[in-house]
Amino acid sequence: MITADSNCDLLPEYVRENNIGIIPHYYDIEGVTYGDEKNLTPKEFYDLMRAGKMPTTMASNPAVIRDTFQKYADQGLDVLHLSFSSALSGGHSNVVCGAEEICEEHPGMKIRVVETLNVSLGEGMVIMKAVRMKREGKSLDEIADWVEQNRLKFCVYFVVDDLFHLHRGGRLSKTTAIVGSMLNVKPILIVDDEGKLVSHDKVRGRKKALNSIVERAVEGMGEEYLSDDWDLCVVHGDAPEDAQMVAAALKEKTGKDVIINTVSPSIGAHSGPAALGILYMGKKRG
Fold this sequence. Notes:
By secondary structure, the chain is α/β, with parallel strands linked by helices. Helix content is 45%, strand content 22%. The chain is built from eleven helices and 13 strands. The strands form three sheets. Strands 10-9-8-13-11-12 form a six-stranded mixed beta sheet, with helices on both faces. A four-stranded parallel beta sheet has the order 2-1-6-7, with helices on both faces.
């Protein structure tokens, strides 16, 4: 059984078709907590942010983690859990603790938790590779070992539209956010080898920034990943027209089909409306 957290941003139909167990992360806006049965649509969420509402986020619930793993224990299933970066959330450590508890209670069960050191569909791409390997007959340990050896090849370039969301999340100083906004500076962010979201470069103007990450992603793939059957993804914070434009540019340059999805609220609370990312397999991060 393959499980993950809701921050992986996989398309819902893909999750259903491949029976992936999803452990939710949570967000609170206007005093209401979402993440389990209750959720806002991406447009509703980002429109609230545009109206000035400031959401907060919470990692996965230990009780939900236990219930999820207990369900699989009752079915006699082993579990490979692929988690969001621990540098950005406490969800990974919560899952590790829950897995250890359930395995102590069920000595014959194996739960292997592997940190993807990634975010959003960067994490999702790891899961999609794991699903393909499972279909090919690879064992749980073979898949987990492959992920641990290759996870740093799953790369991300992100552009955010509003620097103040990064400031609230502790990613930028207030002075940098003010000056950058005045100068129309758009930071280009990557997820580094430690799973941290870090500033990689700065470009003035959104259109130039989006063109820049397209060029950087294509260059970063190199011949190996351009020619092979690797996924290529775009995520966005309710910016569908920009996402389609970036996807079309990527398809023109690579010949690859591009998966597009919105950034989940528990990530979007920090990246903000109109954030946009490209996720791909490459030689190295950054």
